[in-house]
Structures are given as structure tokens and as C-alpha cells.
Write a structure and sequence with these properties.
alpha/beta; six-stranded mixed beta sheet; 8 helices; about 30% helix; about 25% strand; binds zinc ion
Length: about 240
């Protein structure tokens, strides 16, 4: 059983299409989406349609919450806010209803899935450092918690009270450890690598791998320019920040 885990698509259809093709090549059994389907990018409706079709579980992120009025637009920076206002103007009624139907936490088979953090899923905390990781481990009992939100892929383990940030893109899940695994972002990576990022959990082998795949960034950027989305949001795609 192999589970593909994707997050932070942000209405980037070219990136999502490339990731879905890569997941198909990896012979994935099911796909779980950790949220932020929309925001920043030019194809919110097309991305939601594809995700509804391809994913067995879909969670909401803070940008999705903003679109359905559950999150204050003032909590976003001006570029993000501008893109969210544009998204609200183009999203279909049906897709709005779909976003309204999404949960923020999913637990299954001793794995936990959230958009931002297990402690306070709708406070949208970021897990970057030792202290925050240590704190977040207090809020779940599952073997591993998969998350997104920061757009920075990361594998963190906890053995007894010891926290380690694991180097590399692959981890064999040890029975005596717990894990926080950030699967990175499909549509707007921020670890200085522009390639889309996603995770694969091989349940039978107890292995998690983070994968990268390139996509035609210029196509997305041209669509963003045509939709008059902030130029900064388009240019950052090229540098992965
Ligand atoms: Zn995001």
C-alpha cells in the first residue's frame, strides 16, 4: 500500500499535473491532500476539480479557509490577500461548497494528517525549529504526523525526548520513534528549489520518501500575468521562494 501525500497546491495547475503524473508512475494506491488548494496561483477551479477527482482525502488549509470566510484576509500579506480576493472573484459556487465541506484533521491507521500543526490545526502554526517540534509532538499519539503549510519539506524524528532533523529525503520509520514529516509544496516550493515537492508513504515497507518533479513554470507565470496576479508571486516560483 503506497500513499501519495500532497500539500499547498495553490492553484498551480501545471505543478499539480506534473505531480499527479509522477504519482501515477510510482503506482500509488491513494492520494491524500493536506490543503491550500487555492491562493497565489491562476487555476483554482481546475485544481479543485482535479483534486476532487484524484484524492481520497482532502483537508483544508488557511488559504482555503480564507476563501470560505473562516479566516480573516487581514492575517495575510498584501500579495497573498490580493490573490485571495481574485480567487474569490473567480471560484465556482460548486467549488466553494466543496471547500466548505473540508475537515482540517484526518487520522487513519496510526498516521495523522493536518495542514499546519497537530496542536492547534486552525491557528496555522509553523513547525520549523526544535522547540516548536518538541511542543507539537505532545499533541499526537500516531506514529507519524504529515503536514504542509511552511512549503519547506522536512523530516523530524523524536526518540524518547530527543528531537532530530533528518538529513535527506528518505526515512525508514523506526518502531521506537515518532515523526513529523512536512511534504513540502506542490505549487509554490520555498526551499530554494523550484521543483514541486510531494511525499510517498509506503505502508508495508514503513518508508517515507520526499520526491521532486519539474513543471513548465513559464506557463504558470504567463497565466498569472494574464490574470493580473502580483508579479512577485510569479517571479518567486522560478527561485523556489
Ligand atoms: Zn500554503
Amino acid at each position: 500500500m503506497k500513499i501519495g501525500i500532497i500539500s499547498d497546491i495553490h492553484a498551480n495547475l501545471e505543478a499539480l499535473t506534473a505531480v499527479l503524473a509522477a504519482l501515477a508512475r510510482l503506482k500509488i494506491d491513494q492520494i491524500i491532500c493536506l490543503g491550500d488548494l487555492v491562493g497565489y496561483g491562476p487555476n483554482p477551479n481546475e485544481c479543485i476539480d482535479l483534486i476532487r477527482q484524484e484524492c481520497s482525502v482532502v483537508l483544508a488549509g488557511n488559504h482555503d479557509y480564507a476563501i470560505i470566510g473562516q479566516e480573516d484576509l487581514e492575517r495575510f500579506n498584501s500579495h497573498a490577500k490580493q490573490a485571495l480576493e481574485w480567487t474569490r472573484s473567480v471560484i465556482s459556487a460548486q467549488n466553494l461548497d466543496f471547500l466548505r465541506s473540508l475537515e482540517v484533521v484526518f487520522s487513519h491507521d496510526n498516521y495523522l494528517y493536518v495542514h499546519a500543526s497537530p496542536a492547534r490545526p486552525t491557528d496555522w502554526d509553523y513547525v520549523f525549529d526544535d522547540w516548536e517540534a518538541q511542543y507539537q509532538f505532545n499533541f499526537f499519539t500516531e506514529h507519524a504526523c504529515f503536514l504542509g503549510h511552511s512549503h519547506v519539506p522536512m523530516i523530524i524524528s523524536k526518540m524518547q525526548d530527543h528531537i532530530s532533523f533528518i538529513e535527506g529525503v528518505r526515512v525508514e520509520l523506526a518502531e521506537n520513534c515518532q515523526y513529523l514529516i512536512n511534504v513540502g509544496s506542490v505549487g509554490q516550493p520555498r526551499d530554494l528549489k523550484p521543483e514541486s515537492c510531494f511525499g510517498v508513504l509506503d505502508v508495508s515497507r514503513q518508508v517515507v520518501e520526499l520526491h521532486r518533479v519539474g513543471y513548465p513554470i513559464e506557463v504558470t507565470q504567463a497565466k498569472m500575468a494574464a490574470a493580473k496576479l502580483p508579479e512577485h508571486l510569479a517571479s518567486r516560483l522560478k527561485i523556489g521562494y
